[in-house]
Amino acid sequence: MRNRQIKQVGIVGAGQWGTTLAWLCSLKCEDVRLYDYKPERAKLIQQTRKNKDFTGDFEIPGNVSVHSDLEHVIGSAQIILVVVPSQSMRATAKAISQFCTPSQYLVHGTKGLEQKTHKRMSEVLLEETACLRVGVLSGPNLADEILNGLPAASVIASRFDEVIEGVQNLLSSPRFLVFGNHDIVGVEWVGTLKNILALATGMIHELKLGQNTQALILTRGIAEIELLFKKLGASSETLLGLAGLGDIFATCTSQQSRNFRAGVLLAQGQGAVEVQNQVHATVEGLHTIRAVLDFKDEHKLDLPIIEALGRCAFQGKGALDEVQKILARIPGLEKVV
Would you please indicate which residues are annotated as catalytic (active-site) residues? Predict the structure, then answer.
C-alpha cells in the first residue's frame, strides 16, 4: 500500500473519535465503512447522516456508510482502524479476528492499557488477530475541535514503515498533520500516562491552588513519566514530541477532557467508583494508576504524584492533604528528562 491510494477503510467503533476519523478518512478515501455494534443506532446514523449520541448535528459525508455487520466493514478493507475503550479491546480483537487477514494494516486509536494484564493495545491485537502489521494513532486530538475544522496533528507509530506511510497517505491534510514514529511502546504508554496528569491538573484546578502549583505538579509528573520510560525502554524523544508533551498539554489544559473532569471530582472527595459513575465514560487515568503502581512496586520507583493520586482515588485520602505532602518534600537537584 506504499504510495497507493487507499480505496476502502474499515473503522470499528462509532463513538466520537471513531466518527471523527471516519470523516477524516472520507476526505481521501472513496469508501469508508463505520461499524456500530448497536444495529438500531447504525441504521439511524446511516439514514439521518448524524451520530447524535457522540457528534451532535455534525453531518457525516455520503461516502461514509454505517453498518452493524462487522465482516462487511473490515473484510475487504485495506486499513482497519479500531477505536474502542481499552477494556473492550480484547473482545473486539477476537471478534474481528474472524474476518481480518495478515495483509491488512491494523491500527488502533485507543489510549489505555488492558486492566488485568496491563498490556498495550497493540499487544492485544497481535495476540488475538492474524494481522502482522499493527500501529497506533495518538496525539493531541480533541474531536470537537477537529470536527469544527480547526487544525490539529497526530502521530502514527508502528515498527513498519509501510503502516506509517499508509496512514499518513490516508489521513494527512492541511488541517490534519500526521507524523510518523517507530517507538510504538513509548507512544502507547505516554498516551495512557498523560491521563494521570490530567487527573492531577483537574484536581489542582478544583482546589484553586493556582497556575504555579499546576505547573509544578505537571512538570514533576512528566519527570515521573520519564522514570517509567527508562524502565519501559521507550524513547525520551517520544515523551518530548507530539504524542507526549503535545497530548499532555492538550489534555491537561482542556476542561473537555474526561480525565480532567474526573480530577475535579476527586478533589471534591469522591472515590474512583463514584467518579466513574458520574463521568459516564471510561476514565482511563484511574485504570492506569493501578497499572503504574504495580509497575512501581516491581521496579522500586519513587513516583510521589502518582502514588498520591492513587491514595485519593482508591483509599479515600483528601486531595488537599496529599498535595500538601508533595509540597512538603525536600527537593533535590532538578531532573526532568
Answer: 194
